[in-house]
Amino acid sequence: MTPMRFIPMIGVLIVLAGCGGDTDFRDLDAYMNEMRLRAPGKIEPTPTFRSYPTFTYSAANLRSPFSRQVKVDLAGQKHGSRNVKPDPNRVKQYLEGFNIEQFEMVGTISNAAGSFALLRGAGGVHRLKVGDYLGRNDGRIVAISGSQVDVVEIVPDGEGAWLERPRTIPLKEHS
Asked: A Pfam family in this protein (predicted)?
C-alpha cells in the first residue's frame, strides 16, 4: 500500500479518537443540581378564564352611516294614496330580503326571452327582468336600459297611506 492511502485513514482515526474517551461532566452535573435546589417544587396552575356576555350587533338592518342622507322637505312632501299599497298575499322573492342600497348594476344580457339586468349584491350576481322584485320596500323593476335599472318602491307616507318612490340603480363602470 502506498503512504498516500494511509493519510485519510489516519485522519479518520484522529477524529474518532477525539469523540471517545472519558468526558468530564462534573461541572454540568453540579449546575443542574444547583438549579434543581433553587426551583420551587410545584408549577402554578393555569389561570381560569371568565366568559363574557356575548354581543349581538342589531344595527345591520339600518341605513348605512356612509350613504348620503335624504333631506325631508315636509312642505313639499308628497302625500300617499289609498289606491297604492303593497300586496300582502304576493309571495316574496329572494332578493326582497336585502336592502336595495347594497345592489349595483354590473351589466345587461339579452336573448330570445328578453333583456335582463345583472345586479351584484346579496352574495352574488343576479339576473333580473322587468317585473321582478328587489329590496325590502316592495321594489319592482319597471325598466332596464344599458346604463341603469329603474325600480319603483312602495313606502309608507307616515300618514297611513302608501307612496310610490322611484329609484335608479346606475351601471357601475369598471366592475
From this structure: PilP
In a domain, 125, yes or no: yes
Residue 39: all three cell numbers together: 426551583
Domain, as residue range, for 149: 92-168
Look up the CATH number of the domain holding residue 157.
2.30.30.830
Tens of pLDDT along the chain (175 residues) come to 566 777 878 877 777 766 655 667 889 889 888 888 876 667 778 888 888 888 888 877 777 778 776 665 555 556 666 677 888 888 999 998 999 999 999 999 988 888 899 999 888 999 999 999 998 888 999 999 989 999 999 888 777 788 888 999 999 887 5
Residues 6+ apart with CB under 8 A from 64: 101
Q: In angstroms, rounded to a whole number, what is the distance separating the alpha carbons of residues 158 and 117?
A: 32
Q: Is residue 38 assigned to a domain?
A: no
